[in-house]
Amino acid sequence: MEHRKIRGNGIDIHVAIQGPSDGPIVLLLHGFPELWYSWRHQITGLAARGYRAVAPDLRGYGDSDAPPEISFYTCFHIVGDLVAVISALTEEKVFVVGHDWGALIAWYLCLFRPDKVKALVNLSVPFSVRPTDPSVKPVDGMRMFYGDDYYVCRFQEEGEIEAEISEVGIERAVKKVLTYRTPGPLILPKDKSFWGSKDDSITLPCWLSEEDVAYYVTKFEERGFSGGVNFYRNFNRNNELLGPWVGCKIQVPTKFVTGDLDLVYYMPGVKEYIHGPKFKADVPLLEEPVVMEGVAHFINQEKPQEILQIIVDFISKF
Questions:
Q1: Which residues are the active-site residues?
Q2: Structural domains of the chain sorted by starting position, each given as residue range(s) with its CATH number in brackets
Q3: 3-state helix vs strand vs coil in the chain, percent to 5
């Protein structure tokens, strides 16, 4: 596996690359609180099948640059980074696979620059996050449904959640979030009860090792959490900026996969959107969505081989 920095869109972007130099590129986009490393199983699997897997640390994460200003983390900044990565590696269209925030950004990449994307596989986050009335503030809606302690609401205050994570410990925070399996809203009470007692151990599932956690912890100790949290701090701003794309459709062949224990699946209206006619209307080239039983949010790590096979089966059609 090769690690390199690509200069583009005003920052240095770290990418992990594996596979033949002439293989079709598969761009793998991670979520929160993750890194390129979240795709470790799919990277090797894709490379073994002749694809060139490219997994960046998104802006603000890992070994990529992390501008200090919150305003530098809009969807346009992040999509700009990805366009720079794609353009540095090829003049051809690429396959894109996204999870969590990576899925949200992948929708926007397809919306803004469909000329760069051959086909899309998105995990966890459907296109129910499509542009809406620019006067609507999504965070206000989340606050109305779930209250001030909903994690997205807690993330809005600059420095607050970073200080809390520092107090409970980065290792504990990473373990608690990556092992979260409650099919419902992630609530972070200000009394810090979500994190549990420091004296209580957190049992890891079979798909997440102590070595995996150690890698995440090392990178978040170096970089901090502000970059990743700043994505959430631009929810309202993104919706203001997306006015020109209200009503636009995703015109890219798409496969969507989620788990029936994924917290996103239980957000208001999401399940109905996935299984109703609106998803296909918004994404005309969408194949039948897949809902994996007994699988939670971090689906590409929990079911690495199954997700690899879904990716390969889909992109091999193009």
A1: 100, 232, 297
A2: 2-316 (3.40.50.1820)
A3: 45, 15, 40
